[in-house]
């Protein structure tokens, strides 16, 4: 979800922009889903902003999935929240995979998948714990730090220096995190920063962002050895299976209670499924940085959901902080 799962800054589905010229497709296939995929790409020639609509739909499905998970399953443990999301999204994925063309897969792809699944499973647990323990408006926006951490990794490991817009983006993300906790400023100018580490959802999501910054690189490599469409569906299905097998070994899962909530569960699972579809289609039509920049609007939608569904307080300053963080992400991914 949320983020995450399946996104990877967004994590795993980045691809080359769709070109309307008659070039050979990177993957071949037949069937209902492939025909739909080709039709959507053709429509992109007729509707130039279709990629934007699909990217916006991706952002909305991510935010909606997080909000519904918190509302319907927030009373359960983080393990059970993750199990519910995986249990109800897996059937949609398994029904779709037979209709998706399978590219040639090599050893590199399988090694990366084996590394990604346990790391992403751990990140998803922290993600669920963050949205359970804290308001959406004080947790989800901290996913904006993923590109900041990626810049830091490039600087310390590769010696890459961000340009002025990249530095501006970092400043906006940090400033936005300060504004999220602006009500704490009465205790001192540095109190909003200290509040970040007192709010469990905030610092937990910072750890998730750090993990995603590494998972993004691995996910991109996996796509280079497969295809964005196949990887999006296959990896999330494999991830769901891993979650359903591993988490019950770590704690007691209230299977009976979760299974007696089919309507609520399906609504969450459907959002995860739509997230993968919209992301896969949008990322095939335009450069990844454009699509991801629009998709980051999910942090704004999450703040709105926090206000509408959970009556979260200080919504004005939190929306302003989230907006600054969103602008920071745009500066880093699109211009930096």
Overview features:
single chain; 336 residues; mainly alpha; 14 helices; 72% helix; disordered N terminus
Determine the mean pLDDT.
85
Number of domains: 1
Q: Which ranges are low-confidence, i.e. pLDDT below 50, for 5 or more consecutive residues?
A: 2-28
Helix content: over 70%
Q: Output the radius of gyration.
A: 19 Å
Give the strand tally: 0
The H-and-E topology, N to C, reads as HHHHHHHHHHHHHH
User: How far do the termini sit from each other?
Assistant: 27 Å
Largest sheet: none
Overall 3D shape:
globular
The helix-and-strand class reads mainly alpha
Strand content: under 5%
Characterise this structure.
The protein is mainly α. The chain has helices at residues 32-46, 50-73, 78-96, 107-133, 145-158, 164-180, 191-198, 200-224, 228-250, 255-259, 262-283, 288-295, 298-310, 315-335. It has one domain (32-335). Helix 3 packs antiparallel against helix 9 (228-250), helix 9 packs antiparallel against helix 11 and helix 13 packs antiparallel against helix 14. The radius of gyration is 19 Å and the shape is globular.
What's a quick, concise take on this entry?
By secondary structure, this protein is mostly helical. The chain is 72% helix and 0% strand. The protein has helices at residues 32-46, 50-73, 78-96, 107-133, 145-158, 164-180, 191-198, 200-224, 228-250, 255-259, 262-283, 288-295, 298-310, 315-335.
Topology:
Blueprint: H1 32-46, H2 50-73, H3 78-96, H4 107-133, H5 145-158, H6 164-180, H7 191-198, H8 200-224, H9 228-250, H10 255-259, H11 262-283, H12 288-295, H13 298-310, H14 315-335
Helix pairs in contact: 2-11, 2-12, 2-13, 3-4, 3-9, 3-11, 4-8, 4-9, 5-8, 6-14, 9-11, 12-14, 13-14
């Amino acid at each position: 979800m949320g983020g995450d799962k399946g996104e990877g800054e967004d994590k795993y589905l980045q691809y080359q922009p769709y070109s309307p010229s008659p070039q050979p497709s990177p993957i071949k296939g037949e069937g209902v889903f492939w025909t739909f995929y080709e039709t959507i790409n053709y429509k992109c020639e007729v509707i130039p902003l279709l990629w934007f609509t699909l990217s916006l739909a991706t952002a909305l499905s991510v935010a909606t999935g997080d909000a519904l998970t918190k509302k319907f399953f927030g009373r359960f443990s983080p393990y059970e929240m993750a199990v519910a999301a995986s249990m109800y999204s897996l059937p949609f994925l398994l029904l779709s995979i037979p209709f998706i063309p399978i590219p040639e897969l090599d050893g590199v792809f399988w090694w990366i998948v084996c590394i990604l699944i346990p790391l992403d499973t751990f990140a998803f647990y922290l993600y669920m714990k963050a949205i359970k323990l804290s308001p959406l408006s004080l947790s989800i926006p901290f996913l904006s730090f993923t590109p900041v951490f990626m810049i830091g990794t490039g600087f310390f490991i590769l010696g890459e220096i961000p340009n002025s817009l990249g530095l501006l983006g970092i400043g906006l993300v940090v400033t936005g995190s300060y504004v999220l906790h602006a009500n704490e400023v009465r205790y001192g100018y540095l109190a909003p920063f200290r509040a970040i580490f007192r709010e469990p959802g905030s610092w937990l999501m910072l750890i998730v962002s750090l993990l995603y910054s590494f998972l993004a690189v691995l996910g991109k490599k996996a796509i280079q050895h497969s295809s964005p469409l196949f990887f999006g569906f296959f990896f999330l299905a494999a991830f769901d299976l891993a979650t359903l097998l591993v988490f019950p070994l770590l704690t007691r899962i209230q299977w009976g209670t979760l299974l007696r909530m089919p309507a609520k569960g399906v609504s969450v699972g459907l959002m995860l499924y739509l997230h993968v579809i919209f992301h896969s289609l949008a990322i095939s039509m335009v450069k990844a940085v454009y699509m991801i920049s629009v998709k980051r609007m999910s942090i704004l939608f999450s703040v709105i959901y926090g206000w509408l569904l959970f009556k979260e307080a200080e919504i004005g300053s939190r929306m302003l902080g989230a907006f600054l963080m969103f602008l920071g992400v745009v500066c880093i991914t699109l211009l930096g």
